[in-house]
Amino acid sequence: MARVKIKELRLRNFRAFENARFVLDDKLTVVIGRNGSGKSTLMEAFEFIRDALLEGLVTALIKHGSISSISHKGAGFISSDVSLAIELSVDGRNVVYGFTIGISPSDLPFTMRGFHNFWITSERLVTSDGTSFFTRAGDQFNTDIVGIAPAPAQEALLLPQIANAASLWEEVLEALRQIHVYKLSPMVMREEQQPSGANGLSANGSNAGEILSKLAYREFSGQSQDVRWIVEHLASIVKGVIGIGPTASQTGKTSVTFVQRYNGAQNNFTAAQMSDGTLRSLGILLALRQEPAPTLVFFDEIEDSIDLPALEVLLEAIDERSEDFQVVVSSHNAELLSYPLIKGEKVRVVKWESGVSRIYNLADNVIEAIHPPYSVGLLLRENALSTTKYSIGVGTNFFEV
What is the pLDDT of residues 333-345, one digit of tens each? Predict the structure, then answer.
């Protein structure tokens, strides 16, 4: 498999982001910002691109609330065309893939507007050396590969249809489809679930039992030690845990059983009997060990219902797994941000200013100051976490490498 790194996400008129570049660290990126600043929107943008390539653009728009709701409202509350792009490094070769969704007048009934009054005005995949590309403008298509002449449909992206024409295109498509974002829900994880057939852990953790079952099979067949790794980390979080396993009910639904030893006795507990913090910790560990390995994992508000000692264990697990794929976490918790792993150069600050979300790096003097006894969390508590003067935006060449 190709070695893939996501270098940056580019947004133009996506929700509150009017013009923004989200530059990622090669391993761990930490997003901080106050509630409502736009941290979760960055996660949604990754998810939207993934959904559009995996399930189709129409389905992605329905899931995320229609084109009119994701489009940034400018002066006069007029919706604007929406552009999203991702720059990747594929075996050291820089590639940009992205698309623009235009909003068109519609004479459909009001209840149908927003779901159908759009079209793809452009779609591009370009490389730094210009040796492999395709561009689409409306119904016009151009590429360097001979023999490809698709008929672009206004509501469908081309990459999933033509990726098999070039190995690089296939690698880009697969990498973008293996982006996983998480806002785990302990309430959902407590419930027994019908098998979904999904390859990866769902965004809310609903198929935890199914994913654990697949990992347990891999371990039983000698392919991995994923479950053992999860149990070792979970045991450092929850006293007495010595095992976990998938459980199937008579109706075919799956769940997770926890094995815990206390006062010399061994007991089994269902997910419904475990705390929110335990279930969210399990979800994070499952996400880090799922197969196939993701390109990127994004955990939103990772500290939610998890205490600091448990967070330290999880951050160590994230640090280990970030050797194999990139991880993004969002947080505004000063205690978590005080952990030594959180370096200043890994931090991106999201601010909401005059109706627009913007992304900033920490100021150079702040980054230089972050070493013991100072930390990102300490400076945050002291309101001394100053950023660069200018936000990180995209120039005129939105789709260029």
Answer: 999 999 999 999 9
